[in-house]
Every structure is written in structure tokens, then in C-alpha cells.
Amino acid sequence: MYIKDYVEATYATLVKQPGTNTALASLQRYLSKRGLTKLYPAILRGLAEKIRRKQVSTLPVVMVAREADLKRHEIEIVQALSKLTSGGEHEVRIDKTMIGGFVIKNRDTRIDRSYKNTLLHAYHRLTDRV
Amino acid sequence: MSTIIERIKKELEAIETTTATEEIGTVIAVGDGVAEIEGIKDARMMEMVLFDDGEGKSLKESMEHTSVLFGLVLNLEEESVKVVVLGDGARVREGMLVRRTGKLLSIPVGKNIVGRVVNPLGEILDGKGAITAERDMPIERVAYGVMERSAVNEPIHTGIKAIDAMIPIGRGQRELIIGDRATGKTVVAIDTIINQKYEPKETRPICIYVAVGQKDSKTARIVRELEEHGAMEYTIVVATSAADPSPLQFLAPFAGAAIGEFFMEQGMDALIVYDDLSKHAVAYRQMSLLLRRPPGREAYPGDIFYLHSRLLERAAKLSEELGGGSLTALPIIETQEGDVSAYIPTNVISITDGQIFLETDLFNKGIRPALNVGISVSRVGSSAQTKAMKKVSGKIRLELAQFRELEAFMQFAGDLDEDTKKRIESGRRYTELLKQDQHATMPFQKQVISIFAANAGILDGAPIAQVRVIEQEFLALIERDKAVFEKQIETERAISDEAAAELTQMIEEFKKTYAHLYA
How far apart are CA B389 and CA B306, in angstroms? Predict the structure, then answer.
């Protein structure tokens, strides 16, 4: 088994039976029985990373270049948010590199109406890079 | 200038104002050109994804990269997908966003791709400006089925006498060129491409040379040679060097096949050279091991046979209803110490419709092309051979077969009877006649005349050293005095009885006039 498989298995155990100590103690026992105790730190690191990724905010994120853009694109943002989520709650982040427009991210989907990416795509197409 | 302004205007008009959603993922691990991505749940096998390395960077910084970084989905796993990076893997970072493109990997092809050098993604390598794409051809696709094909019935002339006479190749066939390193495998393939210049423009096949993991210097030399012989006019080079990432090397033959199919589907003929599939198998093995697919024999993945069979199955002769186009494949395999029973050679031998064996011993003896005509075969090509060639090649095949049997007795030449000695001498003359220099391909009609003359006894009594001189002199004589014969064979593809009689007469006269060559 790869470290990744141990991470997945331990994570699944943790989800099913909350109580970190029991799950980790059985993992330690299992590894020492097979002489694989060396893997324990790496598995723990992988597990921590997986938990961190799973705990990332589930709220949609609206990114704009400046706060004024929230007002400017209000209607479009509301429309876009309704596509991605049923509730209106969202987090707002400022990213000056976007130049203008907005980006909405919700888990594995994104609506990108930033000026930066629009210009970048046009540049790539004009220079035959796409 | 106005064209650029027009293009910019079009781009501005095309800027999307809709709020379309796109599926994104995040790189969770990356190494050795393989990235593991979490998020893009609906991704499909062989789909292209785009690495978005512009997040958090200014527009100016994002524009600094000379190319867009694509990835190819190759493993769909429970929690994530594994993607091979088609470019500089060092640009991929953990946490980087990845966008689905929704497009299966394809290559933009247009008629003006002919004469160009591109990489497997269709990116230009020769700096000669953009290629106008007419269609996006999928790199992976299912080959044409039985009902969509017709029998191989037209020859593709290599310009190499030994091959055209005894191992004929038909349009739509797959003929393997196999041999150790430095036995002239690439030369046979390149000569075949060069020889297509003798074909009439309307039936001339478009040639595609696919360099898989070759040295850049070798590819550059080949392109230069093709240019010098005027062959780049109808040739496309798909190049990947040994320094390119393994996914690009893996894709190169498939990209070449996609280009060939573009022309085949337009009713044209195409010829594709895969140089070579041994390196292709090695690249695929590397990629598969990095993707943690289970290794099999010689550490190749279990589907290595399927990889090559689905690639070579794309060579086809289409039915008349589908335009009658064809794609002929000349895959090359490099053996180690002449071992044709290794894994990849046996696989490809069993997939193809015949093999051309090149041997180091013959090469070192000065027999070039170093073709072993005894074990080389063409399974479907004979039905595509022209009447003229069929008529003359029967005898040469028989003579050489007898010669090979008697070859072992050659060292006891003194004790042999006259008949055996005669057969050995004849075999040696035929062997000499079949020698050809690099890039000295011979049009089919000249080959027919040359072999006809040998069968009619023009070489009888000639010293071995003079065989090729006699051949050249006789062909020059025909060109000077009876060019009509060549024209007739070229157009009618057969030798009439009258022409045969007249040629025999000319041979008799030639032997008298050029008696000094027989001394």
C-alpha cells in the first residue's frame, strides 16, 4: 500500500468513528506489527493536509479588484451567485491583480468575468498560443 | 497591419459577456510531469485541462509565459484525477488552479500544414508563421471499421529496387521496418518519402514523418535533407526530441496519425513514418510508471500491445463511398543485437502486414540497403504491385532464393559443378544490382527496365564490380534513345510484348557495343 492509501483509510475511519485517539492508536499498532512505523509521520502529514483541504470554507467566494466593483457588477454577481448556490451568503475577497470585473468560486466551479483573464485569453488567441 | 486590427476587433467582439460556469480543480500533488488534481469530477479520459498559473499574478507577469500550459487527463481515480503535463512541468505548483476545457485532445490541421515542422500539439517549431486550421482532428479515435475499408490495391513505390520488386507495399498497408541501430532504417523511410516526388502530383501521397524522442540534430538533418530533395513540399514533420517530456513523445505518433487521417478523409493518400515505436514504448512505459499503473513484462504496462495496435489500425484504405483515401504506415522498430523476439518487436511484428528486416552483417558487408530479403515479407502488398513489376520480379525472387541456399557452399567454389557456380554468380550479380546509395531512389519505370534487363541476361558474364555501371549505362541509353518505353511503363503500368521484344533486342546490341564493360 502507498502512503496515500493509508491516509485515505485513516481518514475514512475518522469520518465514520470520530475520536482521533482510537483511530490513530490502531494505525500505530497496525504499522508497528508490519514494521512500517517509519511511515507514521508521513501518513500524519498527509492526513493533516487532507483534513485542511476538506475544512476549507464552503461559502462561495466573490473576488473583485476593488470594493467599488461589488456595486458596479451587483446585478451580474447576484445572477451568477444564483447559478452556483441556493443561498445568498458569500465571502468577499479583494484581488487587485484582477484589474476589474469579478470572479466567483464555489467549490469546484468558477465564474470568471475578470478583466485580467478576459484580456489574457484575447492575448493568447491573438498570438496563437491557444 | 489592417489584418491585425481586424483580428483584434473580432476578438473584442467575441469577448464573452455571459456568466458561464467552468469546472475547476486544484493541484494537490505534482512530480515528474504528473499532477494529481482534486475537483474536476466530470473530467473525461484524454480531455485537455488548462493549468491556470495566473492567479495572484499581474496581467504583465501572466503574459510573460511564452505558452499556455495544458495537461492531459489519463487516470480517473476515486478522489482525484491524474494529469500529465504537456510542457514545462516545473511551472505546475501545488494549489494551482486547473480548468477543464471540455475538449478531447486534438490537433488543429489545415492543408497549409504541409511543409511544416510541428510538435504533437500542433505548435509551430519552424518559425514560419501560423497554420490556418480547417479542422481540429482528435488525437485518439477509433479506427475505421471493416465495412468502411476497401482492399489494398494500389502500390506505394519506395524507389528501392529490393523493396518494390520483392516486398511491395500497398497504399493503406502497415509495413514494419525493423533492425539494429545504424542499419539504415530511417534511410529506407526517408528514401520512400523522397521517392514520392516521382509520383504525379494528383496521386502523390502527403508524407508525415514522426520523430519520437529523436535527437534534435537528427530531426534537423532529416528536415534539411527533405528540403534539399524538394520533398518538404509534400511532407509534414511532427517532432519530439529526447529532451521533451514523455507525454509529448507518447502523443507524437497519434498526432501524426490524426494529420494523416485529415488528408485520408479528403480522398487523398498519405504516408506516415513512425520513427520509432521502440522509443515510443519506452516513453509510454515511463509515463505509465509515473501514473502508478501496474508494470508487466519488461516493466511495460499491460496495454502496450493495445497502444500500438490501435495506433497502427488507423492506417487504412477507405472505401470508394468514403472517398477512397488511404493512410500507409511505416513504423520503425529498433532491435538490440538483432533480437526480434523481444517484447515490443514481436508485438509490432504481429500487428503489421509485413516486415522489412535490416541486418548489421549485411550493412557491414557493404550491402545497402542492408535488407534481408529472405525473411522480409509483405503480406498484402503483392496484390497492389503493378503488372510490369510483377512480370519482372518473379525471376529475381527465385534467383535470390536459390542463391541464399547455395551461399553456404560459396567457400568451396573450386569443388562446385558448373550449374551451381552459375547460380551463385547470378545471385551475386542480382545482389549487386539491388544495392542502392542513400537518397538515390529510382522511379518505378526505371526499376522495371533495370530488372527486366538483368532477367534478360544483360549482366551475364559481367564482373561484379561492373554490374552497377552496366545498369547505369543501359538506363542512360534507354533514356536517350527509347524514352517512350519509360513513358509507356509509367502510364500503362505494364510491359507490352512488343516492348519486351524490342528491349531484349536492345540488350543484345548493348552487350556488343559496351563489350569493354564485360572484360
Answer: 36
- Cβ distance A129 to B54 less than 8 Å, yes or no, reads no
Which residue numbers of B are catalytic?
379
Whether B236 and B115 have beta carbons less than 8 Å apart is answered as: yes
Report the distance separating Cα B17 and Cα A80, nearest Å. Answer: 12
Residue range B32-45: mean pLDDT, rounded: 90
- Cβ contacts below 8 Å, chain A against chain B, sum to 68
pLDDT, tens only, B220-260: 999 999 999 999 999 999 999 999 989 999 999 999 999 99
Which of B24, B56, B79 is closest, CB to CB, to A97? B56
B364: amino acid identity, one letter? N
- H runs (alpha helix) in B56-117: 59-63
Which of A108, A123, A125 is facing B63, going by the closest CB pair? A123
At B512, which amino acid appears? K
Task: Show the cell assigned to B57.
Answer: 499574478
CA-based nearest residue to B164, from B367, B441, B427? B441
Q: Which of B276, B280, B377, B274 is nearest to B327 (CA)?
A: B274
Residues in contact with A91: Cβ distance below 8 Å, sequence separation at least 6, in sequence order: A57, A59, A60, A61, A62
Which string of DSSP letters, residue by residue, matches B183-209? SSHHHHHHHHHHHGGGS-TTTPPEEEE
